[in-house]
Design a protein that fits this description.
By secondary structure, the chain is mostly helical. The chain is built from eight helices and two strands. A two-stranded antiparallel sheet has the order 1-2. α5 (80-103) runs parallel beside α7. The longest helix has 24 residues, at 80-103.
């Protein structure tokens, strides 16, 4: 049940399909309430019954189709200059992440995915707050980090949030 090496949706039994359905339903509720988190929840939960290389492309398509409709409403709120620097960095980091996803066995990949989620969550629980915005070079380096992590986790927002909070913030008690 945990991190199968091989398999596809056609080989899932009733319990496997039930698990996927509950995971997608729970992730949809969270996204509906919070506005984010679908990809992270589905990736972490569904990789228990399907290999990450099968789950992550499907989650990517789901996330893009669910998010594209929001673009007209948030277009004016986007910080385009930092986004350009972030994207530039991701162009360099993403090939590394795709290579890792394609070449790492499913069990270590599941451990990596779940480990990254726990690590990011613990960093966010440390009680940090922004002290300043990173410059172009730092934003590009965050993009490289996020590009390398995104294919495994497919939760770029969490990686960006982590990098911004962990690398460029001071503690609330400072």
């Amino acid at each position: 049940f945990l991190c199968p090496k091989e398999g596809n949706v056609f080989e899932l039994g009733v319990l496997g399909w039930l698990w996927v359905g509950v995971a997608v339903f729970a992730a949809s509720i969270v996204r509906g309430i919070a506005g984010f988190g679908f990809s992270l929840i589905v990736t972490v939960l569904v990789t228990h019954v399907l290999p990450p290389a099968t789950v992550i492309p499907a989650v990517l398509l789901w996330e893009i189709s669910a998010s594209i409709g929001h673009l007209p409403f948030v277009y004016k709120q986007v910080a385009w200059r930092p986004l350009a620097w972030l994207t530039l960095g991701m162009l360099f980091g993403t090939p590394l992440g795709v290579w890792v996803l394609a070449h790492l066995d499913a069990k270590p990949m599941c451990l990596l995915i779940n480990g990254l989620v726990v690590f990011f969550a613990l960093m966010l629980l440390r009680g940090k707050k922004p002290s300043h915005a990173p410059g172009p070079v730092a934003t590009s380096l965050i993009g490289v980090l996020c590009g390398a992590v995104a294919p495994e986790l497919w939760a770029v927002g969490l990686a960006v949030l982590f990098a911004l909070l962990f690398c460029f913030v001071r503690s609330r008690t400072d």
